Known about the structure:
Helices cover 24% and strands 41% of the residues. The chain is of the alpha+beta class.
Amino acid sequence: MGLAAGAILVAGFTAWRLSQGHIAADAFRPVAERWLAGAVRGGHARVGAVEIAWYDASHSLGFELRDVLLVDGQGRPVLRARRLETGLAAASLLSLDPSPGRLAADDFFAAVSVSPQGRYELGYAASGAPGPSTAN
C-alpha cells in the first residue's frame, strides 16, 4: 500500500509540475542522440537541449528537443530542426497501448527517400520492401 501511495504522490507532483511548464531533462540528451543516430547508417546526432513536456492541445506527454542535427555516415544532413516535439497520447499510456499524440517541428529539414520497392526511410538511400503494417 505504501508503494502505491508513493507512486500516486509522484504522479500527482509530476502532473502539477508539468502544468507549470516544461521540465529540463538534459540527462536524456545522450539517449536522444543515440536514438536519432541509429535512424541512419553511420549517423551522428547532436541535440542542444531536452525537456519533458505536456502538450495540452493533443493531450500528449513527451519531449521537446532543441537545436537538433542528424547527419549520415557521409556527413550529409538528414534532419535539422530548431525545435522538435514528440509525444505519446495520454489515453494510450493509460491503456498501456502507446500511440503517437504529437509530432511537430519548427524551422526543419528532413531528407526522406523511397526505395524502388516502396519503402520510406530517413536519409538518402532507402532499400528493400516496406515492412509489415502495424495498423489494426
